[in-house]
Amino acid sequence: MFQVRIHGRGGQGVVTGAEMLSVAAFFEGRHAQAFPSFGSERTGAPVVAFCRIADKQIRLREPILEPDFLIVQDPTLFKVIDVFAGLRSDGYLLVNTNKTFAELHLGQVVDRLPKGHAVIVPATEFAMKHVGRPVPNAALLGAFAALTQFVRLDSVEHAIGEAFPGKVGAANIAAAREAHEFVLMQQRESAA
Predict the structure, then answer these.
(1) Which residue from 149, 137, 134 is spatially nearest to 71, judged by alpha carbons?
(2) pTM of the entire structure?
(3) How far apart are CA 97 and CA 116, in angstroms?
(4) In a structure prediction context, what are the per-residue pLDDT tens digits for the chain, which is 192 residues long?
(5) DSSP 46-77
(6) Domains annotated on the chain, with CATH
């Protein structure tokens, strides 16, 4: 079972992102579940969403305490809560920012993960460019697909299209594609 925990703030599409990831996995014939956890239901409040993906039926229903993959949609949360709690030593980290890990003071966290398992993506910039709103969830799912190849980009695009038909979906798919290519480019550069 592959477990993903997404941290963000209300209004950033955290819950929708987890749902779209589960749908993308479903399109690939896997079992998946997605659910949120939040206290104060207002824009800007910290929100956590979870997604489990497996090749067999998922019976667990509790929050993910030891994620295989951690997506941080808002880096200001690093100062508010311990988003890294339980992150597996062989896990993945995807952060929405245009700063470096050093600028975020996350060197120790990144150093304990395998090489190539921690990536920064300016997903909000991609969302603003394509969607016109600061909702980084679709772009981050494109980055997720590139980083893990656990779900394919075409499955992510299909899930986005199901959630947002028409022009909004097309714009979000464009953001996901750009983030996917951004991560692949980073991987090529680090391998060279």
Answers:
(1) 137
(2) 0.94
(3) 17
(4) 999 999 999 889 999 999 999 999 999 999 999 999 866 566 778 899 999 999 999 998 899 999 999 999 999 999 889 999 999 999 999 999 999 999 999 999 999 999 999 999 999 999 999 999 999 999 999 999 999 988 999 999 999 999 999 999 999 999 999 999 999 999 888 877
(5) EEEEEEEEESS-----S--SS-SEEEES-GGG
(6) 2-191 (3.40.920.10)
